[in-house]
From TrEMBL:
Membrane topology summary: Multi-pass membrane protein
Protein name according to UniProt: Derlin
Species of origin: Paramuricea clavata
Function: May be involved in the degradation of misfolded endoplasmic reticulum (ER) luminal proteins.
Pfam families associated with the record: DER1 (PF04511)
Length: 217
């Protein structure tokens, strides 16, 4: 019982938007892994979404990860980054403003889905997590972070280190670059351009999300 209580207290301590994102990314992945949900119904595909009206793919392609014995470690790393950096943003920059945090995820997801349609990117968890990590790293760019083997450097370099690391070790890197691009687009439009250049803020959280967050609270 004490262990269950500790786990429940930990889960409830996670900010609400991060809690839902984290939980859904575990539930849908495990349901797909054990065959409860058919993987073929969860990947992103333009023709199936637009012409077959399988709209749910816009959602499942974000929260589902194709888990296999070969991808298990990478999936756990993704979950760690999702939990850690989304939580830090929601309890830091977006403290008391879950609607703004949710809008960031929605904006990044929409841009990511458009890119996914253009280049046939089927599963979107990797770049979405990287986009959130990138935003945190820009907000806290001078914070010292620790990477593998005790390497330390400023947070602003972490997304690029992860991209290069995955290129070398996993032979990938494209998804990380896409995530960095999307994170930078959000950060530039929401913060950099209006604050540093005195320009118009081109994106803002819709009032509907603020109303919904008050209802949920």
């Amino acid at each position: 019982m004490p262990a269950e209580n500790d786990l429940g207290d930990w889960f409830r301590s996670i900010p609400v938007v991060t809690r839902w994102w984290f939980s859904l990314s575990i539930v849908f992945t495990l349901l797909g892994r054990f065959g409860v949900l058919n993987i073929m119904y969860m990947f992103l595909n333009f023709d199936l979404v637009v012409y077959k009206f399988q709209i749910w793919r816009l959602f499942t392609s974000i929260v589902f990860y194709p888990l296999t014995p070969q991808t298990g470690f990478h999936y756990l790393i993704n979950l760690y980054f999702l939990y850690s950096y989304s939580k830090r943003l929601e309890s830091g920059l977006f403290d008391g403003r879950p609607a703004d945090h949710l809008f960031m995820l929605l904006f990044n997801s929409i841009i990511l889905i458009i890119i996914g349609f253009l280049i046939n990117l089927f599963f979107l968890m990797d770049p979405l997590v990287l986009s959130v990590l990138y935003v945190w790293c820009q907000i806290n760019k001078d914070t010292i972070v620790t990477f593998w083997f005790g390497m330390q450097f400023k947070a602003m370099y972490l997304p690029w280190v992860l991209a290069i690391f995955n290129m070398v070790v996993g032979g990938g890197g494209l998804k990380e670059i896409i995530g960095i691009f999307i994170g930078h687009l959000y950060f530039f439009l929401m913060f950099k351009y209006p604050q540093d250049f005195g320009g118009t803020r081109f994106i803002s959280t819709p009032a509907l999300l603020y109303v919904q967050s008050l209802v949920c609270a």
